[in-house]
Amino acid sequence: MLKLTAPGVPDLYQGTELWNLSMVDPTIARAVDYATRGQLLENGWRLLMIAALSCYVVTWITGKTAASKLALTHLILDLRRTHANLFANGSYEPCVAQGD
User: What is the dihedral sign for C-alpha 59, 36, 48, 22?
Assistant: First the structure.
């Protein structure tokens, strides 16, 4: 989420909208399963995101929440589109850590 909301254009690798635990560079050309991604988005991605993210911490590695990454990416990119002026012209205030 931080990467998608930071100033500038988000750098996203096509085909890595779902969890990608491979040990190789994602820029290597691979077939992308657009049908699965489209189906996940059509099947109520907002509800899917809420359900998937609620159990994310426990089960993300099992693949049961594979759609959570896609849903979050879709939600944030939609937010960027809806509020394009904010992301293009809004100010960036860094968070400064203090203390131990």
Answer: positive
Whole-structure pTM value = 0.58
Residue 52 · residue 71 · CB < 8 Å:
yes
Contacts of 36 (CB under 8 A, 6+ apart): 18
Q: Please, how many CA atoms are within 13 Å of residue 40, restricted to the half-sphere of its CB?
A: 21
Alpha-carbon span 50 to 72, nearest angstrom: 10
Residues whose CB falls within 8 Å of the CB of residue 3, separated by 6 or more in sequence, listed in order: 10, 11
| DSSP 8-state class, residue 62 | G
Top-confidence residue, 65 or 84:
84
Identify the domain containing residue 20 by its residue range. Answer: 2-88
No. of H helices and E strands in the chain? 6, 0
Task: Give the mean pLDDT of 1-17.
Answer: 78
Question: Is there a domain that residue 95 lies in?
Answer: no
Residue 22 lies in a domain: yes
